[in-house]
Batch of 3 targets.
Target 1
Amino acid sequence: TALNVSDESIHSDSTRNQHGSKSVRSFAVMWGGQAVSLFGSRLVRFAVIWWLTLATGSATVLATATIAFMLPQILAGPFAGSYVDRWNRKRVMMAADSLITVAVGVLAFLFYLGIQQIWHIYLIMLATSLMASFHWPAMQASTTLLVPEEHYSRVGGLNQSLQGAVNIIAPPVGAVLYALFPIESILLIDIVTAFIAVASVGLIYIPQPEDQPDSKDQSPLSDMAEGIRFLRGWPGALLLIAFAMILNLIATPAFSLLPLLATNHFAGDATTLAIMQSANAFGMVAGGAIMAMWGGSKNRTRTAMSALVIQGIALFLIGLVPGGLYELAVILLLIAGLTSPIFNGSVIAVMQATIPPKMQGRVFSLILSGASAMSPIGLAVAGPVADAFGVPIWFVVSGLVTAILSTAAFFVPAIMHLERREEESTEIEHETEELDESQITNQMHEQISTNNDVSDKSEVENDL
């Protein structure tokens, strides 16, 4: 196909540079396409969640929708990561985005016919989430191969700024479009933006890591087991996953219930929700810009946990804001958003620098699945609790737990020195290189010695 010809021609050009220099330009093209696609997805997500809010007014329904979106990433994530490490990562991203457009197109058709049901939305969320479980590790692993290591933290900040910028623009635009057009028309926007993402990835060359797993050598289960062994040798990562599991159990439901906080507690409408989400997004843009320019401190984990303590305090205070002080909640959401890119950017940078490129697909997926494993349980509990006692109580509890756990992390050496695995990996690589050089030298000496022996023997035979 034309895409394959383009791949080969670009690959030929790239091989002129020995060892394959990382292409920031290719990353920029990929990043731009994903930015457009992310905007379309956020726009549609706002419209669908608002439709569910108006149609049901139920915290349980919103929580169930979030569970439907998270379950495939938790259950299929580890296997998806193994396949990402085996397959061409560029094709994985293109296929995932293409299949997401099909799923969204089906939902748009159901709305057009007027036969949509709540369970239809759950099913489509399951399908799109399954594709996302392949797309996310492929994107993260590709970034590692395209961007120099010293820029990992900055790229993390840039990605978080993108998330924030999209969340600023998408909610108000979604609110306006929801008032002007039927929801099936809004869903079509996601289809168009996803095609743009597919095209942008198709235009670039994404290198594959060296020593990529051979599908004939071992099974995906063996690949996953190898990823688990890698994590078992990294105590700090295991503790961080356990830490994230507890936080996601408590904190994830809080943000999924934000639409009901806007309508029930603050007596607002779609505009109220859009302003609250946009405030949180403004904070994400600011935090991402800080990370992009600063790059984080030398101890990235300390930076991450400091940000999380502040976020916990902000969430705790949101739960205490009276219904008449909506503006204060907006300010606190902005502060909470500010801390997210600093935490996420710092942690992801450690992961990208520490995990070998050939293993990043499966290890990233294992970390994501492990960290998110408790979220569905939290959502299942949060829905009925919020219906019975109100949404603010969940913000109080989640904020308090987040602040306490983040503070406690400062006293856990394995978490505070999470980057030690990175240093150990680097030392091992250097030792391996030195060992290889030593082995080559020894082999050369042995070969010379052998040649000399043969030569001496030949001379003796000639004399005889």
Note: Residues 25 and 146 are 9 Å apart (CA to CA).
Target 2
Amino acid sequence: MRSVILKRKSNNQFVIIIEADGYRREYVEGNFETAKARAIRLKLILGIK
């Protein structure tokens, strides 16, 4: 199963969690718009609608 999750870690930090085929990675972004754009790009790359 593949998933991309965008969560708020603290007031100015957002975490993007990628889980795909036993692989898990977390990215921390300081800006919501940047985090949202990265999450959308990752979903497109992984083929998630």
Note: The helical segments are 32-46.
Target 3
Amino acid sequence: MGDRANYVLVGENGYELFHSQWGALTIDRNFLDGPDSAIEFVREQRADAAWLDDVWCEGAVLIDVPRRFLLLFTWHHGGVTNRKTWLHELAEAWPGWEIRWAYGGVEDVAAYVGVDRKRVRTEREPIERLVNEHLLEYPDDGDFVITIRAGGTLRGYLVSAQHCDLPWAGPKLVDLAGGLAPAPGRKRHGESDTGPESGVHIDVDEREVGVWTLAPLLGTVEELAACWPGWRFEFWEDRHEEQTRRCGEDFPMFPW
């Protein structure tokens, strides 16, 4: 049990790796007092030579002191709105530092210090299984939105995906989604509903695809783009507005 996190301190002579059994739950709080407090906090954690893989690592923070660079992610960010507020507060607490979200999850953190991504990458599930099982589990309040425009018609589908893994199906995702029941939009379901955390918009006629996410990509943007040969691929980072704009009134998105 746990919500595990890796912490990395980078100095002039290399890096130190730390581990916390429950740290991913509180990344959004433990680093809001600035660099000095953050470094002290990390040094209080368990020194550990073992990297967590992308299944067990629910959050990670890398502090590169010489470069004044902060790289981080967590699954437990509270959704689009809360995460935006948190990152704004973080920027105020770390003046003069470059802060970057690790969209590739622990892979990005490991790769930053020269560790092979494959060391923390686990085997992927078949994409067909992900699409079919997740839709049945969360048909209305899905946290992943697929929108497909083809032949002048736009259809949207809601699925649940803990990671941003569905776009890895490439163009095959169009046919897989076509076997699902279309949704009229993504409404808010109660006050606790923080909205989707990822989305993909596919324009079949223009052969364009765009992806946004707060969840880990489970790979690099370049690897994901390679799954769409012959298509114009855009990675929108956390800019869900890109998908909303392309859908317009044809598919009402979540009211953030």
Note: The domain at 127-250 is CATH 3.30.420 (Nucleotidyltransferase; domain 5).
